[in-house]
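Onboarding guide, step 5: your first structure request.
Type a short instruction followed by the sequence, for example:

Predict the 3D structure of this protein.
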Amino acid sequence: MWREPIKDDLIESLSQAEIDKYDSASSGKHAAVIKRTVALVRGYIRSSPKGITLSPDTATIPESLVAPAMDYAAISILKRITGDIAKPRMDAKNDALELFKAIAEGDVTPEPYGADNATGGTSSVELASSSRRRVTSKRLEVTP
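The system replies with C-alpha cells like these:
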C-alpha cells in the first residue's frame, strides 16, 4: 500500500526533547520537508532497474518506506534547531539513505503501486524494511 506521509509520522520518529524543540522552531515547515523527502524517495524508486510502478499521486510512497523516510526527514527538521544531533539519529538517517540506494541499485524492491496483499492477492516482491538500527523516541531519550 502506498500512502502520503504526514506530520504525525515525522513526530513519531522524534524524541520528546526533539519534539519540544521542533514545536518552538518549526512553525509549519514540516510540510515542505516531508514533500522534499517524498520526492527524494520516489526518485530512488524511479531509478531502480526493476521498473517499479510508481503511484500517480506524487505525494505518496510505499508504506514500508515511510519510517525510513521520516528518519531522513527528521535531520532536515533538526538541523534547523540549535544543538547537537544525536549519533543514533544520524545513524538512522544514514541507514535510510543506504536503503534508498539499495532500491536504486535494484538490491531491494519495495512494494509497487497497486500491489495489495490485503485483498488476498499474492506478491512476489521483496518488501523494503527499515534498518534494525532505526531510531525510536525511547532510544533518543536515553542518548547523551
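Each response can be followed by summary notes, for example: The radius of gyration is 15 Å.
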